């Protein structure tokens, strides 16, 4: 039996996330491409973290394959709880020690190269041509498809092949769905990225100066029926968590006048048709979230955006986040970089989503809140830029406008973007502004994020369906499943892979401390019980001294007049 091995080194792009528990489209489309040629081929899927745990086992399996496809590329670097993206030396090592199969490198790293933490591309994609037979600058699933159709003759396949439409992709997406059963998060908190369209409507004006999304060319929308068919296939395999994250702006799916207007008019009817179709295909789904929303769309089309927001809240699940790339609150930087919105417009967009979506849902989180992305190091940035950014965030606090999270990252200059010609100047700017960047980031985490968390998830809030993911010290990190789930630290070790409810106890900069809800007063360690909301030191000591407590009457007598506390406790 012929074998194809897919190694997922993880991806993170402005439109698309593939670091566990998220699974992006690349590996699924590649698997579907293989099976569309020959359903009998043995397709093996590995994550880079699995490979690190058993290099010898992976090498043996991969060397027996006809083709090895490595997917990698972090375009928007972040910190990840669920996995560590593939490193440069690992990308090269794999190609060196695996000699049997045809080796293909795909994903953003093959298109753009390896980027540094803040600045320009550190390693050009051409470097990998010495290690891989095909470094795919086009669509890796299509290249794989043509390789198999040409009887594994890599010389007959162009690495620049790209899809002209969604015809083959729709077929690959359904056939490749069963690759999810090989993912280490399958059966737990696995969440699937769903693609709705390619590129960005702002393609016609060149888009934001730093963004690579528009380099995919004119917008190509994916038919709602095809997306629903993919969801149906995934749902039949047990997937219950979905994110409509692979698009530049969810609100402009099937938008009117796309290709004519920089900010095309939203199409609420098309969006409702898509969401209804997904709900019908996956009636007992647990998560349906989105990712990107262009604040410029909300500003220019407020009534249509209002309708889309209400439709989304009708069919999605709570805890959703509309991530908005505002990038800066400095008007000069906005103009110089062809960004989306001026600061006053940004405020309008953020406030609009906050006011509509802050109602609390069944899982304890607000239904839908905006997220904010800042990009540091853009041309025109000065010390004043950082002051303006802080003033903008202070305005949100002063007016009680809720935000789920603030992302701050240094610009990564990619070869296809307009900033590539200014790469050296930008690296110098990042060096000169490093102290301002660090001070701004500290202020946001220490003052803005902490206070915002206290409003969004106040002490005593109960968060449902939290998944325990990682042990850290004597505690456990856990999160709900979603677009940007809140990180929760539970100050005791709990079995991993469990679904529990927690009650919020204390707030950090970007995370909270929580305890299981309700807490068993006889079994919980003292270090956990002390974090229960409304627990005083005196009551804690009385509980510890009286254990085992045999009845609620006894527990109530120990607690005394503190009736708020009783609702968090159990026997």
Descriptive report:
This protein has 571 residues and is α/β, with parallel strands linked by helices. The chain contains 20 helices and 25 strands. Strands 1, 2, 4, 5, 6 and 9 form a 6-stranded mixed sheet that branches. The protein has a 5-stranded mixed beta barrel with strand order 19-20-21-23-22. Strands 3-10-13-14 form a 4-stranded parallel sheet. Strand 16 (368-376), helix 14 and strand 17 (405-410) form a beta-alpha-beta unit. The protein is globular and about 80 Å long.
Number of strands: 25
- The overall average pLDDT, rounded, is 95
The helix/strand class is: alpha/beta
**What percent of residues are in strands?**
15-25%
> Please, how many helices?
20
Q: Biggest sheet, in brief?
A: 6 strands, mixed
Unreliable sequence segments: none
**Cα separation of the termini:** 56 Å
CA gyration radius, whole angstroms: 25 Å
Shape descriptor: globular
Helix content: 25-40%
Organism: Vulcanisaeta souniana JCM 11219
Protein name: Radical SAM protein
Pfam family, one: Radical_SAM
């Amino acid at each position: 039996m012929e074998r194809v091995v897919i190694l997922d080194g993880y991806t993170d792009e402005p439109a698309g996330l593939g670091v566990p528990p998220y699974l992006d489209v690349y590996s699924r489309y590649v698997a579907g491409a293989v099976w569309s040629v020959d359903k009998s081929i043995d397709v093996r899927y590995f994550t880079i973290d699995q490979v690190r745990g058993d290099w010898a086992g992976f090498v043996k399996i991969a060397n027996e394959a006809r083709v090895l496809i490595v997917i990698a590329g972090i375009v928007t670097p972040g910190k990840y709880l669920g996995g560590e993206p593939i490193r440069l030396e690992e990308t090269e090592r794999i190609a060196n020690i695996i000699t049997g199969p045809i080796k293909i490198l795909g994903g953003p790293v093959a298109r753009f190269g390896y980027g540094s933490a803040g600045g320009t591309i550190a390693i050009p994609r051409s470097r990998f041509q010495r290690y891989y037979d095909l470094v795919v600058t086009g669509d890796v699933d299509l290249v794989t498809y043509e390789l198999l159709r040409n009887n594994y003759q890599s010389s007959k396949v162009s690495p620049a092949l790209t899809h002209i439409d969604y015809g083959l992709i729709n077929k690959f997406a359904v056939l490749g769905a069963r690759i999810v059963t090989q993912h280490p998060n399958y059966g737990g908190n696995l969440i699937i990225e769903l693609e709705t369209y390619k590129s960005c409507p702002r393609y016609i004006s060149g888009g934001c100066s730093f963004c690579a999304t528009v380099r995919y060319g004119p917008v190509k929308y994916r038919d709602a029926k095809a997306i629903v068919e993919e969801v149906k296939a995934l749902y039949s395999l047990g997937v219950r968590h979905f994110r409509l994250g692979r698009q530049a702006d969810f609100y402009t799916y099937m938008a009117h006048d796309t290709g004519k207007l920089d900010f095309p008019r939203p199409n609420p009817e098309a969006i409702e048709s898509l969401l209804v179709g997904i709900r019908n295909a996956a009636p007992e789904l647990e998560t349906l979230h989105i990712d990107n929303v262009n604040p410029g769309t909300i500003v220019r089309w407020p009534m249509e955006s209002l309708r889309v927001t209400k439709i989304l809240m009708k069919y999605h699940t709570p805890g959703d986040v509309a991530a908005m790339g505002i990038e800066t609150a400095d008007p000069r930087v906005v103009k110089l970089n062809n960004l989306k919105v001026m600061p006053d417009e940004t405020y309008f967009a953020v406030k609009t989503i906050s006011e509509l979506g802050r109602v609390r849902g069944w899982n304890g989180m607000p239904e839908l809140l905006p997220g904010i992305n800042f990009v540091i190091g853009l041309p025109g940035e000065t010390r004043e830029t950082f002051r303006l950014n802080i003033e903008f965030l202070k305005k949100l606090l002063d007016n009680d406008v809720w935000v789920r999270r603030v992302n701050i990252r240094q610009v990564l200059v990619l070869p296809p973007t307009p900033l590539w010609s200014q790469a050296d100047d930008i690296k110098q700017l990042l060096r000169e502004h490093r102290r301002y960047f660090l001070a701004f980031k500290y202020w946001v985490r220490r003052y803005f994020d902490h206070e915002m968390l206290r409003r969004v998830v106040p002490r005593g809030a109960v968060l449902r369906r939290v998944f325990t993911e990682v042990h850290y010290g004597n505690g456990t990190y856990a999160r709900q499943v979603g677009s940007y789930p809140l990180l929760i630290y539970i100050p005791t070790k709990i079995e991993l892979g469990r679904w529990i409810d927690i009650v919020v106890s204390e707030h950090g900069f970007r995370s909270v401390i929580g305890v299981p809800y309700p807490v068993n007063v006889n079994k919980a360690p003292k270090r956990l019980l002390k974090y229960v909301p409304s627990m005083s030191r005196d009551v804690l000591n009385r509980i510890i001294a009286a254990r085992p407590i045999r009845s609620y009457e006894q527990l109530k007598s120990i607690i005394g007049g503190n009736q708020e506390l009783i609702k968090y406790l159990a026997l």
